[in-house]
Specification:
Blueprint lengths: L6 E3 L3 E2 L7 E2 L1 E4 L7 H9 L3 E3 L2 E5 L8 E6 L7 H9 L4 E5 L6 H12 L10 H8 L5 E9 L2 E10 L3 E9 L8 H15 L4 E7 L15 E5 L2 E5 L2
Parallel strand pairs: 11-12
Antiparallel strand pairs: 1-4, 2-3, 4-6, 5-6, 7-12, 7-13, 8-9, 9-10, 10-11, 13-14
């Protein structure tokens, strides 16, 4: 896409991930970018979305946020990931195409118990709806069930050549089951089933405990200086 598009730059504000840094965002404000095809192209340029706002970190003195995507057709689970899949064999996977009414209670419990120190605490339904739903592209909602209990929902965007992990929330009691890792593996498997090339996992931030888990799936690619660099284990 060789056209010129209008982008905006946010004001500088304290970083949500690195306490000593200041954050600034590049925002796709051009209406011509607000569709699935352009959104997929922007993802390949390191952008993501929150609600319907498409953004990319554009910080003055920091480049810690690195966009990461898993190479679906080459992915091989590690030994620990294989053990986790075997351990959680009793969990049932379902896929939905719309937000369901039974998602919000799980989301509310997740935010209020797991992320009490986060910007989204306390949870409310308006925030939930605006943050997770989107008109840019089709979505799939990967559900994990334990018998009759919904224990995890992975909100995922469907692009032409990829899936993009938007947000995952889970039942706090299943944290010891490695439900977050299990959910990402299931998104990888879903992407393969759908014939996608990549699973975008968002930004890997090595020095942030909440954001440094995404590079455990191999092989993956990191966007560095506008080029995707493949990382094999």
């Amino acid at each position: 896409m060789n056209k010129s598009y209008q982008l905006g730059i946010s004001q500088t504000f304290p970083c949500n991930y690195l306490p000593d840094q200041q954050e600034r965002l590049l925002i796709a404000v051009d209406q011509r970018l607000q569709d699935s095809e352009h959104y997929g192209w922007l993802m390949s340029q390191g952008f993501r979305r929150s609600g319907d706002q498409i953004y990319r970190p554009h910080c003055i003195n920091c480049s810690a946020c690195q966009s990461l995507r898993v190479l679906i057709n080459e992915y091989r689970p590690t030994k620990s990931q294989k053990r986790l899949l075997k351990k959680n064999h009793q969990f049932i996977i379902k896929v939905n195409s719309e937000l369901q009414d039974n998602y919000y209670p799980l989301y509310e419990r997740y935010i209020n118990e797991v992320h009490k120190d986060g910007a989204m605490f306390p949870a409310n339904h308006t925030q939930y709806q605006s943050f997770l739903s989107g008109e840019l592209t089709k979505q799939v909602f990967l559900e994990v069930w334990h018998e009759e209990t919904l224990i995890n929902v992975a909100v995922t965007d469907a692009l032409n050549d990829a899936l993009s992990a938007v947000y995952t929330f889970y039942h706090p009691d299943y944290r010891k089951s490695g439900i977050g890792t299990f959910s990402i593996i299931q998104q990888i498997l879903l992407a393969k089933k759908l014939g996608k090339e990549f699973l975008y996992l968002g930004y890997q931030i090595d020095d942030c405990q909440k954001m440094n888990y995404k590079n455990r799936y191999y092989p993956h690619q990191l966007l560095k200086e506008n080029s995707w660099i493949t990382v094999n284990k």
